[in-house]
Automatic annotation (TrEMBL), chain A:
GO terms for molecular function: ABC-type transporter activity. The chain crosses the membrane at residues 21-45, 81-107, 137-163, 175-198, 210-230, 236-255. Pfam families: ABC2_membrane_2 (PF12679). Coiled coil: none annotated. It comes from Thermomicrobium roseum. GO terms for cellular component: plasma membrane. This is ABC transporter permease.
């Protein structure tokens, strides 16, 4: 493995992303929404709804794990609402950020590269297929994970500041599992999906639209939680992370098999 | 170990794409220091040949050897010693020229200690030093092609594969790029130039290989092809303008194909061998025609190409 070549691909793709508005916009807007606006909004919502009758709060609290419930009941009603929303109900949505960042960069770097007719210039260099693949993977996954982790840190600090509640309720163990384990996994999963989609679809926009379907399961989990079907505790969060990592591993292996010079050239 | 055989050796090379035969068993060689033109229409098999030489595609028959190596096995080594300019320059427009060259210097394993100096020298040599910090998106087509050429020289390659390097350029930019290619030739590099520009091939190439529908029609030095294939010269004879019709009659009686050119007093005689020219002039003079001049144009590569094309169309 020639790391100089791998680093060159990562550098090139990240330089290009920094100067591409269609790619950069989701990279800025989504973290602002999910890591800043969401904790601030839910924190303020809790304050305004501070006088909510116990009967309305009860179903939400009842769905919590027993250990967390006892601690939560010691909080003000407004704080309880904020914690339930930030740490449990909307927690899976923060995974949308690394997913969107990874898919946007990967779509630009794979389908976009073909669309701009710049891929062949890379293929005629001595870079090996696995080096090119790794460069493309790192270029998409590293920013996704870094943005996800830094954003989550900001989100936790903001959440604590706005609600006045600290660990282990905010951030909660499932939230921390989703951030620590789930974010890299979902970024790899998104990237793997883009590699597979790019093998069949030509344009950046088409790849972005199709990879957007990956967000559906996360939204589904959120809807299921809101409807009282279940609430993610640390066990469910861990299970979710394992499933995501397994899916990412499988899909990336399949993607790597498709990532051959001749196949890439045929599509280009 | 120094390799002293042909730099490129293609032997009965075949490649299909589905039912379409792209190459139907072509053979040719490129010797060290030689510049060989690969000529043909779009779809003749030029780009496929280059991709096979680089190991980007797998042959379906026959063999390719580059520096004595097999591209499908030793593609990395071959690409390390080869510079390529593709049909499209393939430059990421969001990068500046310097950034782009830095990326490719890393991809070609150019040592970090010499990168800055080599990039600066190439930018200077290709007239891009002053715009090196500008994004490629702001470049003209000619500047982009010069940058693509600079990029392919970053690792000081022994072999250059140039695929239609002037196809999308205006005449001035194309002329500049041709000069840059000629300089590389003077440096002693081996070049395989795929083009459908016959004038370009004639000016730059030591030998040409003419492809049609995946087959080699003919190969040889451009100047010798006409004689080898019996493509005749075109002769323009200048006579007294009022005697043009009489002259045409005389030539017709000798069984020659001739026609009046738009310029007064000028007659174009086709299919005339060079050695027959004195005899024709003597006949005209003998018939009382005032002959003021004779202009003999040896057949160009274009004439050869057209003649070959007509022959294959007739088959």
């Amino acid at each position: 493995m020639h790391w100089q070549r791998v680093r060159a691909i990562v550098r090139k793709d990240l330089l290009a992303v920094r100067r591409s508005r269609p790619v950069l916009v989701p990279l800025i807007v989504l973290p602002l929404v999910f890591f800043l606006a969401m904790p601030v909004g839910f924190g303020l919502l809790g304050r305004f709804l501070g006088e909510v009758p116990d009967s309305e709060l009860e179903p939400l609290i009842r769905a919590l794990p027993a250990a967390d419930r006892a601690q939560l009941e010691r909080l003000e009603p407004g704080q309880q609402i904020a914690v339930v929303l930030i740490s449990y109900q909307f927690a899976p949505l923060i995974l949308l950020v690394p997913l969107a960042v990874a898919t946007a960069i990967a779509a630009d770097s794979l389908a976009g590269e073909r669309e701009r007719r710049t891929l062949e210039a890379l293929l005629v260099t001595p870079i090996r297929d696995e080096e090119l693949f790794l460069g493309k993977v790192l270029a998409a996954v590293l920013p996704a994970v870094v943005i996800g982790w830094l954003g989550s840190l900001v989100s936790a600090v903001v959440g604590i500041a706005v609600t006045g509640v600290g660990p282990p309720l905010l951030p909660s163990p499932p939230w921390m599992l989703l951030v620590g384990l789930g974010m890299p996994g979902i970024a790899l999963l998104g990237l793997g999906a883009v590699v597979l989609i790019s093998a069949r679809v030509r344009g950046f926009q088409e790849v972005m639209q199709l990879s957007g379907l990956l967000a559906m399961p996360l939204i589904g989990v959120m809807v299921a939680q809101a409807s009282g079907l279940f609430l993610i505790d640390w066990r469910l969060a861990l299970l979710g992370c394992v499933v995501v990592w397994a899916a990412a591993f499988g899909i990336l292996r399949a993607g790597r098999r498709l990532f051959q010079r001749e196949a890439l050239l045929r599509l280009g | 170990m120094v390799f002293d055989g042909p730099i490129i050796q293609v032997d009965r090379l075949e490649r299909r794409f589905g039912q379409t035969v792209a190459l139907a068993g072509i053979s040719f060689q490129v010797a060290a220091g030689e510049i060989v033109g690969l000529l043909g229409h779009n779809g003749a098999g030029k780009t496929t040949t280059i991709r096979l030489v680089l190991g980007l595609l797998t042959p379906h028959g026959g063999t390719v050897r580059v520096f004595g190596l097999e591209p499908t096995v030793d593609g990395e080594q071959i690409r390390q010693r080869t510079g390529v300019v593709g049909e499209s320059p393939g430059l990421d427009e969001r990068l500046t020229a310097r950034e782009l060259l830095q990326v490719f210097a890393d991809l070609y394993d150019v040592p970090r200690v010499v990168q800055a100096q080599r990039i600066a020298a190439l930018l200077e040599q290709f007239g891009l030093a002053e715009v090196a910090e500008r994004r490629v998106a702001t470049y003209s087509a000619g500047m982009r092609q010069r940058l693509a050429l600079a990029r392919c020289l970053l690792h000081n390659p022994e072999l250059l594969l140039l695929d239609e390097p002037t196809a999308a350029l205006d005449p001035v930019a194309a002329h500049h790029v041709r000069e840059l290619i000629a300089e590389r030739r003077r440096e002693g590099r081996t070049i395989l130039l795929a083009t459908h520009n016959l004038d370009e091939a004639e000016r730059l190439c030591d030998r040409v290989v003419i492809l049609e529908r995946g087959r080699v029609l003919v190969e040889g030095p451009p100047r010798e092809l006409a004689a080898a294939l019996g493509v005749p010269a075109r002769v323009t004879i200048e006579v007294e303008p009022e005697q043009v019709n009489s002259a045409l009659d005389v030539l017709a009686r000798r069984g020659m194909r001739a026609q009046a050119k738009p310029e007064p007093g000028r007659i174009l005689v086709e299919q005339l061998a060079k050695r027959a020219v004195p005899d024709v002039v003597a006949t005209l003079v003998g018939a009382g025609i005032a002959v003021y001049g004779v202009e003999l144009r040896t057949p160009s590569l274009e004439d050869v190409y057209l003649a070959l094309h007509q022959r294959t169309e007739r088959r």
